[in-house]
User: What shape does this take?
Amino acid sequence: MKRRDFLRAAGGSAAAAGAVAAGTGTAAAQPGFDGWLDDTGNYDGVEDMTGNDEVTVEVGVEANGGAFGFGPAAIQVDSGTTVVWEWTGEGQQHNVVHDGGNYESDLSAEAGFTFEHTFEEEGVSKYYCQPHKSLGMKGVVVVGEVPSEGGGGEGGEGGGEKELEELGVPIQAHWVGSATVLGIVVTLVYTFYILKYGESPHTGNTGGRE
Ligand SMILES: [Cu+2]
Assistant: This one.
């Protein structure tokens, strides 16, 4: 009887552990910029840097398998803001090249090297580092409003479904986390009662019910 109780308690713990594993999915509620940052390892959403005349983006932050990232990868600024890119000196030679030719820096590997551009026009400005573009060293400057998912192709009503999807992931993860805690507590309480009061008459007789 002791061994069966132990197995029951162990089974409960295993179920709880399974729930933990199922809850490790990550949410991706962030604009994709038409896939521009799909292979950019350090992109985790657009950083709001509005309200500043001048902001700084680091060139050569740890990302994409080395010091091959812009930090932050995506920023939001107001019209008229000057973005200053500052080289960390890590990851060999980098540059800042606009995808469209509006601005382009020199190549440099020097810590403290800077390049700046003032963004007047509202919109999304995509840029990359020429030597490490294929590794995912890319960035975005959003001037003004951050576009909705998909880059502006969808209207207000069509976007509703996407928003629900985005909300669904964190809610599910939260629910699984609560279920895990509940499962552990139930297992502990069950084990405590079995140890204290012994086996109840009905334990092990699960076949009798429908
Ligand atoms: Cu680079």
About this structure: The first strand starts at residue 47 and ends at 48.
